[in-house]
Amino acid sequence: LGYFEFTPDGTLTFNTIVPPPPRPTITSITRVGDVTSVSFTTTASATYRLRYTNEAGLGAPVSTWTSGSSINGTGAVLSLADTNSAGIRFYAVEAQQATNRSETEINNRN
């Protein structure tokens, strides 16, 4: 899936559109001492980032929550950890395609 671009200098470029990865499903959240581990489903070639907020941030979009650690997906259930002494935190896992665009160029200039 993709589209072609033809520039005035005679370069033809095919741009591949990579669909976004499926949303991860949080499968478990565990806390031992000050470490919270969030486990979730992944797909290969996607990157996953843990985001968190306290009660005050719940009204804000998840994209504005604090970014925690990240990991590359493998297709298995993986975990990210957050070390904190806060009593209450809310978590979300954000997925992003590792490669958003790939190109193949054909130069038609003679």
Q: Can you describe what's shown?
A:
Helix content is 0%, strand content 55%. It is mainly beta. Strands 1-2-9 form a three-stranded antiparallel sheet, with no helix packed on it. Strands 3-4-7 form a three-stranded antiparallel sheet, with no helix packed on it. Strands 6-5-8 form a three-stranded antiparallel sheet, with no helix packed on it. A hairpin with a 4-residue loop joins strand 1 and strand 2. The protein is elongated. Residues 100-110 have low confidence and may be disordered.
Q: What is shown here, in short?
A:
The protein is mostly beta strands. The chain is built from no helices and nine strands. A three-stranded antiparallel sheet has the order 1-2-9, with no helix packed on it.
Termini gap: 29 Å
Average pLDDT over all residues: 85
Q: What is the string of SSEs from the N terminus onward?
A: EEEEEEEEE
Structural class: mainly beta
Model regions low in confidence, pLDDT < 50 over at least 5 residues: 100-110
Percent of residues in beta strands: over 45%
Q: Characterize the overall form.
A: elongated
Tally the helices: 0
List the helices and strands and how they pair.
Layout: E1 2-6, E2 11-17, E3 26-32, E4 35-40, E5 46-53, E6 66-72, E7 78-83, E8 90-97, E9 101-107
Keywords:
about 110 residues; mainly beta; three-stranded antiparallel beta sheet; 9 strands
